[in-house]
């Protein structure tokens, strides 16, 4: 049985959420921090139908989530391609499309190894990865507070309204599909499991966005990836910057984020086609790489992505809950 614990659920999902924030493009301001953090609590309210269901286990809904996970996995590959150019991964400067294929192939091999071990094993490993990431983020946050320049809070402007920031928050929350599946195989109360995840996500979102504003607020208008820039500019130690640790965390989170989508896609394929035993993870990863080439030019904060996240979190679970209620009434009559 692939049952996981509450902490493993939160770790796997928060790694994906953190990686999406790392790849955030455009300026970040205090309004961004408020909008994205408030959006997390709005998502928690909208997840009530999903929480009451205890996760998704209906096969018709599985088809939607399978497509969703493959698309989100493709977007994660695309995020990695775009952001890697900014953190100086050499292949991107000289390899072109072949460089993308090469690094995608290498990531796919690692993801295949991780995902083939099963969701439970991945959950245990994700706790270690999440701990390393937390150390990196907290170090950057503390460094930003120590060297706080109040003018950065005023200089940082995103050019987006609070409503637009809420929409951006949904677009960054592509992990809602993973949440819908993982919730059903997590031990304990669904409401408590969901609460731990969403509270952790709100804390993560607030920490990352506020740290970016504090550290990189003065140069926000000339940077493409504010979170990456904040990690590069932050200098918590006299002789070494934290960007070397961030590069390691970025690579680990990229691999884990994609591996989670691959493992869950393989899990759904197994539920839909029990006789399809071999190469499920391989097929999932190949489909994600194909989706990446189709979607890599789509902006991360696209309204379409936000609608997809909303459907995975709220619309599809609500439809399933209503359908189950209708079937239960017919059964009683």
Largest sheet: none
Number of domains: 1
CATH superfamily: Amino acid/polyamine transporter I
| Tally of separate helices | 15
Oligomer: single chain
| Low-confidence runs | 90-94
**Assigned CATH class:** Mainly Alpha
Would you give an account of this structure?
Helix 1 packs across helix 13 and helix 6 crosses helix 13 (243-272). Mean pLDDT is 84; it is low at 90-94. 76% of the residues lie in helices and 0% in strands. It has a single domain, classed as Amino acid/polyamine transporter I, CATH 1.20.1740.10. The chain has helices at 6-22, 30-46, 48-53, 59-84, 91-94, 96-116, 119-146, 150-155, 162-171, 176-182, 190-216, 226-233, 243-272, 280-295, 303-332. By secondary structure, it is mainly alpha-helical.
In short:
The protein is mainly α and 333 residues long.
Topology:
Elements lengths: L5 H17 L7 H17 L1 H6 L5 H26 L6 H4 L1 H21 L2 H28 L3 H6 L6 H10 L4 H7 L7 H27 L9 H8 L9 H30 L7 H16 L7 H30 L1
């Amino acid at each position: 049985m692939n049952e996981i614990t509450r902490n493993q659920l939160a770790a796997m999902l928060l790694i994906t959420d953190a990686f999406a924030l790392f790849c955030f493009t455009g300026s970040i301001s205090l309004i961004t921090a408020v909008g994205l953090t408030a959006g997390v609590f709005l998502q928690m309210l909208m997840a009530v139908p999903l929480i009451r269901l205890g996760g998704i286990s209906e096969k018709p809904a599985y088809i939607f989530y399978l497509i969703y996970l493959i698309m989100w996995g493709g977007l994660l590959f695309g995020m990695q391609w775009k952001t890697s150019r900014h953190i100086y991964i050499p292949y991107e400067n000289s390899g072109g499309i072949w460089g993308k294929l090469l690094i995608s192939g290498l990531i796919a091999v690692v993801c295949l190894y991780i995902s083939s071990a099963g969701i439970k094993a991945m959950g245990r490993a994700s706790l270690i990865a999440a701990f390393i990431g937390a150390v990196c983020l907290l170090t950057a946050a503390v460094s930003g507070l120590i060297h706080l320049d109040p003018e950065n809070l005023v200089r940082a402007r995103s050019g987006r309204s609070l409503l637009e920031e809420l929409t951006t928050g949904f677009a960054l929350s592509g992990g809602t599909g993973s949440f819908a599946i993982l919730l059903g195989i997590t031990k304990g109360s669904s409401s408590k499991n969901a609460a731990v995840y969403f509270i952790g996500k709100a804390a993560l979102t607030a920490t990352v966005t506020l740290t970016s504003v504090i550290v990189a607020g003065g140069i926000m208008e000339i940077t493409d990836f504010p979170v990456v820039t904040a990690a590069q500019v932050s200098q918590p130690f006299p002789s070494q910057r934290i960007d070397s640790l961030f590069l390691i965390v970025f690579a680990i989170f990229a691999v884990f984020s994609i591996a989670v989508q691959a493992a869950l896609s393989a899990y759904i394929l197994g539920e839909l086609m029990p006789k399809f035993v071999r190469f499920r993870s391989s097929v999932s990863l190949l489909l994600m790489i194909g989706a990446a080439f189709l979607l890599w030019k789509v902006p991360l904060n696209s309204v379409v992505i936000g609608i997809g996240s909303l459907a995975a979190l709220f619309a599809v679970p609500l439809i399933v809950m209503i359908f189950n209620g209708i079937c239960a009434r017919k059964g009683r009559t």
